[in-house]
Design brief:
The complex is a heterodimer of chains A (about 375) and B (about 130). Chain A has about 375 residues and is mainly alpha-helical. Helix content of chain A is about 60%, strand content about 5%. Chain A folds into 2 domains: about 110 residues, no CATH class; about 240 residues, no CATH class. The relative contact order of chain A is 0.13. Chain B has a two-stranded antiparallel ribbon with strand order 2-3. Chain B has 2 domains: about 60 residues, Arc Repressor Mutant, subunit A (Orthogonal Bundle); about 40 residues. The chains are: A mainly alpha (about 375), B mainly alpha (about 130).
């Protein structure tokens, strides 16, 4: 099998995956929400909402075909990697534009209805916080392993030669060497500590996330959301452990190769990355098929009761219904209105702090690579 | 599962809405004595209000004898007092008289007042001998 064939197969799989997710997302939203907008439970079942969904399906199908055609044509012209990237970029950017268009249509739909937006309901029972245990264990392991790897790199620093490998071939590039420096040696261990602990922390926050319940539904929607919180928290906790395992192995193996105790990067790292991607995909499919966003598929029978809390309040959502902002709301995480998962409450100081801590390593990575401090 | 609902743009303060509903849950027997209640943080998060709002509601309910707040055990429903203190009885009766007078002044006939009062007592599950559910 040629390299071009592999790239094309990978590209086709990616388009099918992204397109499949785009098809599924509107179907797993909490009832009452249409393309990131709360339009009311009755309106969400109406002809106009159905028409929007049909338009979305048709447009998504055409987007997939168009991006595949462009990608394959460029690939046939002799640039498979460029075709892969161009086709994917076209799919993602046009899908974003399509979503924005659908969001505007849904907003118009919402203004014709008058949903009760200032009401909030909460299950009045002690929260069992199921799933919290796994997240706590993951957080403890990630912090301990992260600190241990940082200590290991610090101890090894003095024994390393002046030139250390960068393992560029992990990204399909030729192997290169870089000058030894504290930043170069401690970069991966620090990234490991921050990223894996960050993921585990978010897993813990998810296990305690706010539940946007339906008032007077006999407690079915809180139960559905509790179940969703557990599976989402487990997924994020598992991802944190995978990240910790991969980056810890990479850091330790770098030291071993640099000090000539190993010949090259262990191929098991690539398999760990494959396993992590498969784990993430399996969890995504499990959540979409069995739970729906916020447990939407589990609350059948109670969906006539209106959504409450910030989820039903259009005035607190910005950037096309994707981000939540409410200073009066003490919750850190809020259910997403479109797609699967949670978003931060950007009106909450703690949420802002966590977001900044999470973005910091990415900004730092870009800065260090651009300035040549890390290669 | 009991559900607590608030209206954020209501004239009644949110802490009082919470306190009122908890009083009804306790008085009607929906929450038995000793039942653990959600923490301030959890309830504030689910309702989307500040921590102080829920803390204030719980403090009011503690002062009124509906809840017991302990640092480690959390918040639990208080057992009803066996005997009402004279001062408490006097204060509450004063409040009752005020409410009855207001209702009467608002135009409610005496027979309807009595019926409403009887319905409210029945809703608490209190029998004629003064026992609970």
């Amino acid at each position: 099998m040629t390299e071009a064939t592999v790239v094309n197969l990978f590209f086709t799989f990616r388009v099918a995956l992204v397109g499949g997710i785009l098809f599924v997302y509107p179907r797993i939203a909490r009832k009452g929400l249409v393309f990131g907008t709360y339009v009311g439970e009755a309106q969400a079942e109406g002809d106009e909402a159905r028409h929007l969904l049909r338009s979305w399906n048709r447009a998504t199908g055409m987007l997939m075909l168009f991006s595949l055609l462009v990608g394959w044509c460029i690939s046939l012209a002799g640039w498979p990697v460029t075709g892969n990237l161009t086709g994917t970029a076209i799919l993602l950017s046009l899908a974003l534009l399509l979503y924005v268009w659908m969001y505007q249509k849904a907003r118009a739909l919402a203004s014709t209805d008058g949903p009760p937006v200032r009401q909030a309901s909460a299950p009045f029972a002690v929260d069992e916080t199921r799933g919290e245990g796994f997240a706590k264990v993951a957080l403890g392991l990630c912090v301990l392993a992260g600190l241990a790897v940082v200590c290991h790199a610090t101890v090894q620093y003095g024994t390393l030669p002046d030139q250390i490998p960068t393992f560029a071939h992990l990204f399909g590039l030729d192997e290169t060497l870089a000058d030894k420096s504290i930043v170069q040696v401690l970069f991966v261990p620090s990234l490991n500590l921050v990223l894996s602990s960050g993921f585990a922390l978010i897993a813990l926050l998810v296990s305690r996330a706010k539940r946007s319940v339906r008032g007077g539904d006999g407690g079915r929607s809180p139960e559905a959301q509790d179940a969703f919180r557990v599976v989402m928290s487990q997924t994020l906790g598992g991802m944190a452990l995978f990240i910790c395992l991969i980056l810890s192995t990479l850091s330790i193996q770098t030291m071993r190769v640099a000090s000539s105790r190993a010949a090259s990067l262990n191929g098991v790292l690539v398999w760990m990355c494959v396993a992590m991607i498969l784990f993430a995909l399996a969890c995504l499919v499990r959540m979409m098929k069995g739970y729906g966003q916020g447990g939407a598929l589990l609350e059948s029978g109670s969906v006539e009761a209106p959504l409450t809390g910030g989820l039903a309040d259009n005035s607190h959502w910005f950037l096309w219904g994707t981000l939540y902002f409410d200073r009066e709301d003490s919750s850190i995480l809020m259910e997403s209105r479109f797609g699967i998962g949670y978003t931060f409450n950007f009106g909450n100081r703690t949420a802002l702090l966590i977001t900044a801590l999470f973005l910091l390593p990415l900004v730092l990575l870009a800065f260090l690579v651009l300035t040549g401090a890390v290669s | 599962m009991l559900t607590l609902t608030i209206q954020r743009d209501d004239d009644e303060p949110v802490y009082e809405q919470v306190a009122r509903q908890v009083r009804q849950f306790v008085a009607s027997g929906s929450l038995a004595p000793g039942t653990a209640l959600p923490s301030v943080r959890q309830l504030a998060r689910d309702l989307g209000v500040g921590l102080n709002t829920i803390a204030r509601a719980y403090r009011v309910l503690e002062t009124e004898g509906f809840l017991v707040i302990r640092d480690r055990a959390g918040v639990t429903v208080a057992a009803p007092s066996r005997k009402i203190e004279k001062s408490t009885r006097s204060d509450l009766l004063d409040q009752l008289r005020t409410i009855v007078a207001k209702l009467r002044q608002a135009g409610m006939p005496a027979d309807e007042l009595l019926r409403v009062f009887r319905n409210e007592v029945n809703a608490l599950g209190v029998d004629s001998r003064g026992g609970g559910k």
